[in-house]
Design a protein that fits this description.
There is one protein chain. The chain is of the alpha+beta class. It is built from 4 helices and 6 strands. A 6-stranded mixed sheet has the order 2-1-6-5-4-3. Helix 1 runs antiparallel to helix 2. The two termini are about 20 Å apart.
C-alpha cells in the first residue's frame, strides 16, 4: 500500500510483542504501549478512510491542528473535516512513535507520520512528512485524543 508500508512494521511489532510480553513489561511500559497504540490505530483508520473509527479516538472537546488550514475544535467539526478529506482524497499513512510520556490521566505522544494523499478527482498527489504531537486524556472508555497537532518536518 505505497509508502504506508514503510512504517507498518512498527505497528506490527508493537501489536505482536505487547500481548505476549505484557508479563515482562512494567506497568508504565504497558500503559505506554496502550497509549501509543491509540495513535497507531488512528493513523490506520485514516488510511482505511474509516470515519466512525477515526472520530472514536477523539475526546468530545478535542482540538485538531491539521497539516494545513486553521485549527478545528470539537468532534462535530473534526468529523466534518475527515468526511470531506475521505471523500476527496485517498489517504495512505504510516507512523513511527518517537516518544511517549504520561502522568496520571494525561499523556503526550510524539510520532513521525508519513505517506501520501491522492486526489480522487484530479489524481494529484501530496506527500506527507509530519511530526505529530498528541495529547491524550484517560477517560472511562480509555485513552482519547484531546489535542492533535500535525506539523510538516
Amino acid at each position: 500500500m505505497g509508502t504506508s508500508r514503510r512504517f507498518a512494521p512498527w505497528a506490527m511489532i508493537l501489536a505482536t510483542l505487547v500481548p505476549f510480553s505484557c508479563s515482562s513489561l512494567t506497568g508504565a511500559e504497558r500503559r505506554h504501549a496502550r497509549i501509543g497504540q491509540v495513535v497507531l490505530d488512528l493513523v490506520e483508520s485514516q488510511s482505511a478512510g474509516n470515519l466512525p473509527l477515526t472520530i472514536s479516538y477523539f475526546s468530545e472537546e478535542a482540538d485538531f491542528f491539521p497539516h494545513a488550514g486553521p485549527p478545528i475544535e470539537g468532534v462535530p467539526a473534526i468529523a466534518e473535516y475527515f468526511r470531506l478529506l475521505y471523500r476527496e482524497q485517498d489517504v495512505r499513512l504510516g507512523a513511527r512513535i518517537r516518544e511517549i510520556r504520561s502522568e496520571g490521566a494525561l499523556a503526550f505522544v510524539s510520532a513521525d507520520v508519513g505517506g501520501e494523499m491522492i486526489s480522487r478527482d484530479r489524481g494529484g498527489r501530496v506527500v506527507i512528512q509530519d511530526t505529530w504531537l498528541v495529547v491524550l486524556r484517560r477517560e472511562r472508555e480509555g485513552w482519547r485524543i484531546h489535542s492533535l497537532v500535525c506539523r510538516p518536518t
